[in-house]
Amino acid sequence: MSVDESQDSATGAPARHTGTAAGELEGLAEQSRALADGSVTSTALVRRSLERIEATQSTVNAFRRVRAEAALTEAAEADRRLAAGERLPLLGVPVAVKDDTDVAGEPTAFGCAGEFPPKERDSEVVRRLRAAGAIIVGKTNACELGQWPFTEGPAFGNTCNPWNLAHTPGGSSGGSAAAVAAGLVAAALGTDGAGSVRIPAAWSHLVGIKPQRGRISTWPDPEAFQGITGIGPLARTVEDAALLLDVAAGNHAGDLHRPPAIAAREAVRRDPGRLRIALSWKAATTFTRKPLHPDVRAAVTDVARALARLGHFVEEAEPDYGLVGLAFVPRATVGVGEWAARVPDRSLLDRRTRGSARLGRLLSGPVLRRARAAERRQQQRIGALFGPYDVLLTPTTATPPPRIGTLAKMSGWRTDQAMIAACPYAWPWNVLGWPGVSVPAGFSADGLPLGAQLLGPAHGEPRLISLAAQLEAELRWYEHRPPDRPGRIDGAVISRGA
């Protein structure tokens, strides 16, 4: 793919013009612009996406449900609307959503085995995507009820990392991350309850945004997993992630959390100013071992040096996490129990899921109420860092992506230990409800993607997005693509990938 190195006048970042053939349009914003100026059709983009999904389903296995016929019908209608002069932010652009998100006419199995009835209505976030003109080509794989940082299970098999098919793309939004990394769609939505957007972003060389709690509606649930889970975008660039966030953001009247609106894409174009950045290697207390892989430390150190080159003040400093984990476990396990109660045949659930649901029943009531009541104190204690500092920089994960099967067959206790050891940095921000952005931080010695987190206080997405965009212009991570990814379409021929 040829790259035009001219500067984007709005952002100062390298403009990535790649032509107008459907096979050359890789970015969400790029596709939207090409559709608006008539240089490509929605039908061509959607057909390409569907062909790429089919070509990689036996290898990457990113999708649980594919809406091939419906998506092509919707693309034809989008083309008619575009020809009539209608313009919307994503009119005719193919995107994907995670298997925990309701799409009318499709089941919502959330990684579980069994027969689930089709949903009668779209969730609020899907309604907003459609209102912006987006075409949902399918629902991506997620591990069972989103509990683990891998995307494997008997209901759908193994979702593999496009950078190395022997490794996981992460989880639980691994299908969405794999779909974007492999070039099946330009961007996708995931959900993040303990890092489930940020972890697969790190392990798939993507930008992943966990927004402020309630920024994107979780309706028909007033909140998800007792308030720890939110919806967020995965994309190759900050601009694409911000565009999808702007389109998806907003609330339903029944939502419990309704933060003030932001303009994420406008933040991409703003200089963040000179910021005070705390670099932290400390993970919250969990009473388990959490060794940091040397490749991760080196990669995040390089990100810190890049931020310093950009003029920011960076020094090591640690937040006071206290025992924030004691508030996370009741909320997470009660949430698992609430979701497990919706499953038509609970005997098909993983034994670890059944164990978490049992624990959730024990921790509901007074324990859960105390855990939720502690949130304000936790915000005050951890948030004290944002007096002397503007942004917290940490690794997204402590390790590179594990091999497929490493965690899938462990006992519940061993799974928890291994999961905490690999991913100890993301979940405290779910308890707080605050925003974070995972950005690509380079690669391990084995060529596996690694990530760094930019974390902020309440409603801090604009600053984090602005800083991420500046860092992207410096590090140019979008120039790196997985080997053997699905390639350009030449007529009806498409590369089948690895």
TrEMBL record:
<keyword id="KW-0378">Hydrolase</keyword>
<dbReference type="Pfam" id="PF01425">
    <property type="entry name" value="Amidase"/>
</dbReference>
<dbReference type="InterPro" id="IPR036928">
    <property type="entry name" value="AS_sf"/>
</dbReference>
<feature type="region of interest" description="Disordered">
    <location>
        <begin position="1"/>
        <end position="26"/>
    </location>
</feature>
<comment type="similarity">
    <text>Belongs to the amidase family.</text>
</comment>
<feature type="domain" description="Amidase">
    <location>
        <begin position="45"/>
        <end position="464"/>
    </location>
</feature>
<dbReference type="InterPro" id="IPR000120">
    <property type="entry name" value="Amidase"/>
</dbReference>
<protein>
    <submittedName>
        <fullName>Amidase</fullName>
        <ecNumber>3.5.1.4</ecNumber>
    </submittedName>
</protein>
<dbReference type="InterPro" id="IPR020556">
    <property type="entry name" value="Amidase_CS"/>
</dbReference>
<dbReference type="InterPro" id="IPR023631">
    <property type="entry name" value="Amidase_dom"/>
</dbReference>
<dbReference type="GO" id="GO:0004040">
    <property type="term" value="F:amidase activity"/>
</dbReference>
